[in-house]
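Researcher: Next sequence.
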Amino acid sequence: MKKNYIYILSLLLLLVQSCSKYEDPGKGMIDKYYHVKVDGIELMTRVTGKENSDVAIIMTHGGPGGSSQVFRLNKGVTDLEKDYKMIYWDQRGSGMTQGNPSKSSMTVSQFAKDLDAIVEFTSQVVGAKNIFLLGHSWGGGLTAYYLTEDPSRQNKLKGYIIANGAYNVTGGLGASRQWIINGALLNIAANKDVAYWKKALQFYDVNKEITADNFLEHASYLGKLKGGRYTNAKVQKVYMPKFELDAFAKNPFFVGYHLTYNGESVYTSFNLTNKLYKIILPTHIVWGSHDGLLPPHKVPNDPVGTALVEDFMANVGTPKENLTYTEYANSAHEPMAEEGDKFTKDIKTFIEKYR
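Model: Next structure:
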């Protein structure tokens, strides 16, 4: 558990350094908290942005076990608040969500039910007529499941944005494993940190797949190769109450260890590739070229040959004229942080076309 605590503390330090005291959002802007109740759990939801906008973007965070609040550290996301409403919600067992979810409730289907409640809340309480889903990383997987589990849900939405999306966790993590092995071999050949990278190769020789139990060590090698964040992107100061930081520190691992799909861990079972044909919404794909956690294209020597971007585009049911893709050449897993201005512009272009 020592590594877990180090990981949490490093994230907390980043958040503390990036938080400011509460400031009034300004004339014509909104910043309110709500509790959306679903099956005994209160999903903490923050509504920010332009008060009279009839467009809302539902920001669905990654993890599993992350927090939607961290996206407000990224200029690429908060700049969208100037024109639209942003709906930041924390998933069951994550972030500031209130209640004590049972392990049996930690299923992707239940999470999709929770997301549907957020969509209804956005329509009925927030009053948005034009609703878009934005899912990042694991949030991309959850939103894809939400749309494919019950395709009629798409009637409530105007469009879908998937950013570095984990719609195929098993294939994506398998490609990530090979991506790091390739990087380790290159470093050894270049006589760089040889002992460190030989240790990495030993780890992957023992661990043939990435699971909840070994993910943190995998992530440490990923960070060394800049596969999570490629550039030195700076976060911006935003208001985040202390209770949010406390909740973030307490919750990140429960979900990852217990979330299941068809009775098995999402790490080793979640793959929606063959169900993507059910998605017919206008869709925009966002991916960083240097993403080593969920590599966008086929990784050399990957025995499965997963190509997340190409596989998504080949299988999704969205008509080709309504399907767009932007690759971010200077980003890894977080293009909204690393190339924020470009991200904002691209998302606005998509939304204005389909609102």
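Model: The first helix runs from residue 2 to 18. The chain has one domain: 2-354.
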